[in-house]
Each structure stands twice: as structure tokens, then as C-alpha cells.
Amino acid sequence: MKSQKPSQRKLEELRQRGCLNSRPESVQDELFVTSEFFDPHDVLQVKYEMVRRIRVDREKVSLAAKSFGFSRPSVYQAMSAFEQGGVAALLPEKPGPRRAHKLSEHVLADLRQALADNPELRTSDLVAILRDRFGLSVHGRSIERALKRREKKRR
After folding, report:
1. N or C: which end of the chain has fewer CB within 10 A?
2. Could you tell me the pTM of the whole model?
């Protein structure tokens, strides 16, 4: 059986879930080239089979890296992730910040103090304070959410 190109619907689903392999043509492993079941566009499937091949079939890391289209450091990262969290740990992480990284506790404390000193301050005033005092560019809504989160924790 020869591997077929997946449907546009499947490709879009993989893209939305963050599982679309950006380099499917680099996967040269025979299973992914000849089988309809194994899909080189599905990065989770590719990583899992690569880790399985190394752990179960005892394939050399350098050979697996080449045939599955990954660098050796990426192979070691995938193996470590799998050992720590199973198949789910092989899923790519979402890009971008994980938290409000600009609004540290120190910065929020300064904003709370400014509000305590002058309760009439508007969000636009807080944006200006962050820009002037800390050189930070933060959207007003982000400031409002961060201050509300802090209030919820205090209760």
C-alpha cells in the first residue's frame, strides 16, 4: 500500500490541534512512505513511532532521527517527554507566553499603590504609569484582568 496525501479536512484538523508536521517530506521511514495508516503529516504519530522504534526495536538514535526527519536533540527531547508524560507529552506546546509576564508582583504592587494613593485613576492612567516608570507597553484590559485576578486570590 502506498501512503496517500491526507484530506484537506484532516490537514486543517491537525493544524488546529498543533499536530501538523511542518516537514512531512523529511519523514523517510518505510512505514510512513508505504502505509496508508501512518501519516507523515501527523507529528504526534511520527514522534510516537520514532520513540517506540528506539525504545522497543532498539534502533540507533542517529538512524531514527534521520528516517523520521528530526534532529538528534529533538529525538532526545521527545524521548524525555514521553518518559515523563506519555503520549500526551509528545504534543507540541502552544506558542506564546504562559502568563502575564510583564505584570510581575512588583509591578502590580506599584499599580495597587498608585490606585490607593489616587482612587480616581483610570485604566489609561495606569497604562501611562507602566510606560513611564517601567518602560512597559501593556494593554489596559490586561492591567484590569491582572488586578482582578489579584483581588480574587486575596478573597
Report:
1. C
2. 0.61
